[in-house]
Amino acid sequence: MASTIREFRHDTAAQTAVALAASVAARLQQAITARDTALLAVSGGRSPAAVFDALRGHAIEWDKLVVAQVDERWVSPDHADSNSRLIREHLLTGPAAAARFVPMKNEAPDAYAGQAECEAALAALPRPFDVILLGMGEDGHTASLFPGASELSVGLSSEDLCLAVTPPAAPHQRMSLTLNGLLDSRLLVLQIGGAAKEAVYRSALAPGPIEDMPIRAVLRQNKVPLDVWLS
Ligand SMILES: O=C1O[C@H](COP(=O)(O)O)[C@@H](O)[C@H](O)[C@H]1O
Q: Is there a contact between 16 and 10 (Cβ–Cβ < 8 Å)?
């Protein structure tokens, strides 16, 4: 069990997005007040768009915020499946555009060729992350740590911050923070929307192999507090 798992529940995804964004915004501004900078890493996929829309409306000293990625699909930044596109379109607009964005994707032809450059970019960040915003797939993956991926055991054990991954059943090569990278944070935030994902989350809390549901690695660690936002 994680050192602290706190659960927050709202009736709708929209309510969760507003409350979660307010919580993250307060945390980031506190970090800026304390250390003159803050470091946020965000996920992609469908779930975080509404959180990003709410977060960008908060009064944060955006020019002191660094935004990094939890994972990325190795596609061009204007591709519909690009996580950085989602971040640029939903978070980094208006005053929030003053934040410094450090994308995972680089010019390398594939994720494996791009891993060393991505690792160097992550290593140069003012870590630890203040907040990492995680999602979870219905297969129990988080970041791009997929069950059945040949890279999973390395992703769970490597001392590197990132690794290239080929998902067994999802499109595009990925770059993902490793478990080590995910746990280099002051706070982990996990967004769980809908009954199906909540059932997966409850099942992940039960005993069973981490390899079957990589989210378990986050749920079972005892290094970083974890806030779970359910709707
Ligand atoms: O592929 C991904 O999936 C997960 C979950 O995405 P969602 O669309 O079900 O919200 C996401 O957390 C991850 O960043 C993304 O690359």
A: yes
